[in-house]
Fold Apolipoprotein N-acyltransferase.
Amino acid sequence: MKERCAPYGFVPSPRMLKALLSGGLLILAFPAPGLWPLVFGALVPLFTALPGRSLREALGLGLLAFTVFFFGLLYWIPGVMIRFGGLSRPLALSVHLLLCLYLALYSALAVAGAAALKAFERPGLLPGLLLGAFWLAGEYLRGRLLTGFPWEPLSGALAPVPLLLQPAALVGALGLSLLPLWVNYALFAALPPRRRRAPLLAAFFLLGATVLYGWRALSLEVPVFPVRVALIQGNIPQEIKWRPGEERRSLERYLELSRKALACGPDFLVWPETALPFPFPYGGLTGELLKGIRSLGRPVLFGAPRAVHTEKGWDLRNSLVALSPEGKPLGVYDKEHLVPFGEYVPFEDKFPWLRNLAVASGDYTPGRGSGVLEVAGVRVGALICFENAFAPLARARVRAGADLLLVITNDAWFGRSAALRQHFDQSILRAVETRRWVIQVANTGLSGVIDPYGRVRLLGPVERPWWSCFGRRP
């Protein structure tokens, strides 16, 4: 990639500016501000910069565009490292940049591979299909390699638009990413001097078929929500959540909100991830917890760190526990896909210094099992925190017989940032893919209920204690 140097410093080339523009437009297409129509044209500037470029140059332009995109999309990560991990601002931004470079590599390789096969010099139907195949491979691998981080595929920008989301029930969110990708490619191919019409006609066909299928799906009768559930959002700030002496206050907050929620006659109540900041069932407040649940007279599902004794000693699990109205266990799900550097440190045994990059001091052990708990006659498929970004986990719950999906999370780490909406959007994608109702209960928001077609039927506030009931009335 040629660079021009001015007397007073580096001046980016027009091709680099186009890559930067694509990265910026992609940021705007996702929350926040969530200007989703931009996803259908955001890649066009990058594509116009690729004809005639070598594999190395195309890879560099792709890395520039997608690094900018992920740096802006995930702008909330450095703040977490600074605020809760104790990292300096320069170090946090450096780590964030490395992460974004890594995430950008998958999409950049997809674009560069298509460029090497002349997909941008001689655009057409077959070259467009090759680009789509490379892109799908990139998003697939991003969600699986090195623990995986499938957060916000290209189709994620469409989460606010149920009409366009419905094909995800057939091809998944991954396959749905081909729709905005193809429209971008078709617009690029139609520009002079190329003026290729075939990709544009195919784009019109894809959009028309998507709208028609979406309209048909949204006109169907929605399956009845099988239970009446109370969502309890405690709003415990992360700064005090784990402070010694705050355990009792957290428990009292959730019991108080739960008592109020009894007025709507729920079949069971749900508290968020780590609602109880003490190890269950050995914490000193376990007796008060059981007494409080018995006073409610309803099953309660709550998140808590769970201490488990094994042959090798004590393990700590990030768990969802279901207790009966009598305080007896109905089921337990231990989170199986842990957050690297948040709940464990990958490769710590070989590189102990990585512990210094850990956002939290968690040393959790992953769980195993179906992830399905039966409560009040309903089979609940459990997902904890960012597990809702992993489509295979949600599908596994459905294969195991889940009637609905439940996501519990603690997003207090991220304040009022766009992370909350981005996280909720992952639940929307899972609802459409699995055709299941999804309940999300968060400590500080966003909490809500999504129907099997991706329509938000209930949405709570941010950073406010809140409860609400949803579902059929007794």
Notes: Residues 1-5 have pLDDT under 50 and may be disordered. The longest strand covers residues 300-310. The CA atoms of residues 164 and 214 lie 6 Å apart.
